[in-house]
Each structure stands twice: as structure tokens, then as C-alpha cells.
Amino acid sequence: MVTSFSEKTKSPKRSPKQAPAFLKEEETVELVRQHMPLVRQFARRYSQFNPDYMEDLIQVGSIGLLKAIKYYDPRRTRSASFKTLATCYIRGEIRHYLRDHCSLVQVPRRLTEMNSQLSQLEEKLTKVLDRAPSVGELATHSGFSVQEVLEAQQSWEARIHYESFDSMEDDDRDDRRSLSETMPDKR
Fold this sequence. Notes:
With 187 residues, the chain is mainly α. Helices cover 60% and strands 0% of the residues.
């Protein structure tokens, strides 16, 4: 049987159950020790809106780190560095967890991107003005209308701080609102 060069050089596809361990146990322990700060860094970043998820995200990120170790082959000369591989797996596991478990309110991508731009602009204007900018100032400097700025801010706030559609039972904080109160009125 004649095989082509490309068939000989293809790396075999492995499912998670078939992945061989390329590292010794002590090397694995050392990689975990060295890269746990990376897991905590991503967990902090992704739990900034809800600190209650911090421990869960550290656990999920640790699973990502272990998956990266499982697939890392230091003998491959053309492979990415371990930190690059670990970053992809850690971030991926955390994002999958958040997508599957944490967000009941989905904000349209357009508003998410707009809110990201507005957040960066707000940070810059706060430094320049030495105070938080008004909605009008954000609209002027961003090129969005005042209505678009308000819509982006309200939809993002609804995503992060939803409580319930109708009631606010067991609420001891004055700054919480129900989801229906945070959504813009389109009438």
C-alpha cells in the first residue's frame, strides 16, 4: 500500500478518552503549581460581575488546566508553548461554564459590543473629566445617540443584575431592581 507524505505526517485525532499522558506525575504536579495563578487570574476576570462564582470558576479553570496538561506533548517541536495551550483550555472551560450555568438574560451582540466600546470610552472620559461622564457626553464622544447609549447600558445592567421578573422578596439592598424595571420601554 502506498501512502502519501501528507498521510504519514498527519497527527492522529484523539478523543479525550484516548489521550495519552506525555508527562510524568512530578512534571504534571509542577505544571499545576506553576499555572494555578493563571487559573485564578481568569477566574477573577470572569467573576468580576458576580464574585459568588469565583470558587466555581477556579474549579472549572482547574479542569481546563488539567485538560491542557493531558494534551500537552513537550516532544512536539512545532507545538505552542504550554502557557498558550493552558490559556485556551482554561478560558474555554470557564466560558462554557458561564454560558451553560450563569446567564439567563441574553444581550444581543450589537448591544454587547456597543457596551464594550462605551465602557472603554467611559473609563477614558472619567480620567479626563475627573468625574463620571453623563449619558449625553458618552453619546457625543461615541457617535451613538443618547437612546442607543441608554439601551446598551440598560440591557447590560439587566444581564448582570437580574433578580426576578416581578418580585423583590428577601431583598435587603435598596439598589436592586427587578428585570422588568431595568428593560427599556419600547412603546
